[in-house]
Design brief:
This protein is mainly α. The longest helix has 19 residues.
């Protein structure tokens, strides 16, 4: 399953940033 995803560093960093931002918003 993960093998299908493009593992480019830029995409990984962007995903991490988005996840962290959404987490901080949820945490308030």
């Amino acid at each position: 399953r993960y093998r299908d995803l493009p593992m480019s560093p830029d995409r990984i960093v962007a995903a991490l940033k988005k996840a962290r931002q959404s987490y901080q918003e949820a945490a308030g």
